[in-house]
Amino acid sequence: MQRVAYSAGGVIYRRVAGGIEVALIATHAARRWGLPKGHVQRGERAEDAAIREIAEETGLRGAVVCHLTTIEYWFRVGGTRIHKYVDLFLVQYTDGVLVPQITEVDDVRWIPLPQAMLMVSFPRERDALDQVRILLEAGMG
After folding, report:
1. In which element (H, E) is residue 134 found?
2. Is the pLDDT of residue 84 over 80?
3. 0.85 cut: is pTM over it?
4. What is the 3-state secondary structure (H, E, C) of 37-69?
5. How many domains does the chain have?
6. How far is Cα 18 from Cα 81, in angstroms, rounded to an integer?
7. What is the mean predicted confidence (pLDDT) over 124-141?
8. Are 70 and 47 contacting, i.e. CB atoms less than 8 angstroms apart?
9. From CA 115, how far away is CA 108, in angstroms rounded?
10. CATH of residue 37
11. Residues of the chain with pLDDT > 70: what percent?
12. Is the pLDDT of residue 16 over 80?
């Protein structure tokens, strides 16, 4: 059996005196660090889902700057193969304080961008962070 899953999330960032910080979430008993993301609801735009999921998982709110990338991968749940698509957006922080979503997230932290690129557990999320670095160095956002 096979099905498709669709999620959205992103890189929420802020500028501080030391440079750029991004919010990362920890899952799997705080052993896996990554970007906040979650399911797109029926009839919901990916951009809106990204903003909602970031707020739910981190306590932070922001505004979408641009679409970064779509990550695609396969995984299994029982006997079902799932083809997952995740739209990631660059999101500029506007307000809120770090509060992890207790039911899904073990920890959430502001991390300097260079350190975040070393912490994320998945190469495709690392690639998205590198894309953010390039965009922000070029003056976007």
Report:
1. helix 123-137
2. yes
3. yes
4. EEECCCCCCHHHHHHHHHHHHHCEEEEEEEEEE
5. 1
6. 44
7. 92
8. no
9. 14
10. 3.90.79.10
11. 100
12. yes
Contacts of residue 71, defined as CB under 8 A and 6 or more positions apart, other chains included, come to 85, 86, 88, 124, 125, 128
| 119-129: average pLDDT | 95
Phi, psi of 100 (to 5 degrees): -70, 140
Identity (one letter) of the amino acid at 100?
A: P
- Tokens matching residue 65: 């700057």
Which residue range(s) make up the domain with 25? 2-137
Compute the mean pLDDT over every residue in the chain, rounded to the nearest whole number.
95
Question: Alpha-carbon torsion 29, 125, 3, 45, what sign?
Answer: positive
**Does residue 141 have a pLDDT over 90?**
no
Of the pLDDT bands very low, low, confident and very high (cuts 50, 70, 90), residue 34 is: very high
Strands 2-16 and 80-96: parallel
User: What span, in angstroms and rounded, lies between the C-alpha atoms of 99 and 92?
Assistant: 18
Tell me the sheet residues that pair with 11. Answer: 90
| Contacts for 15 with CB less than 8 Å, ≥ 6 apart | none
Following CA atoms 56, 58, 59, 62 in sequence, which dihedral angle do they give, to the nearest 10 degrees?
-90
